[in-house]
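Researcher: Here's a chain I'd like modeled. Treat it as a single chain, no partners, no ligands.
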Amino acid sequence: MSDFAFAGKVFDIRVDNGVVLRNAYAPEGNKLRYEQIDGASEGGSGVVDLHVGEVAPSVYLLGWNEVSGAAVTHVMDFNSGTITGFWSFDADGGRTGEVHSATFTEVKLAVAGSPCCDPATPPRHTIASPYRKASLKPAAFAGSSSPTRTSRRPSAR
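Model: Modeled as a single isolated chain. Structure tokens:
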């Protein structure tokens, strides 16, 4: 198991735009299974590869690039239980982005085994990118990316 605080755990994330996500992280901290459990794209889910770095003690930068071209990044702060997220995407013939804040709480599951990313159990639902539809606000930290992962810790000064 990874030493990342989120690795192997499941969290409910409440975003300031009303979206609620359930994110399950692989034990290695390199994959994420997300499910949008409330809000604009309720029922959407998927599995993505993560780029991860610890930027301060118990503060992680997570990011991925979606097949649609959307870039998603969020800072997950275990000291405060908050997330600051940014995503950019193509819209109206150009590129745009949004910043959102969220809170997260760990979900204790009563099932054994990894809650994340088992290829034998694909997500219940898959959806087209919410970033492609101008009528939908980007509703979640969702997408796919390359498998590259970095772990960097700040140097002591």
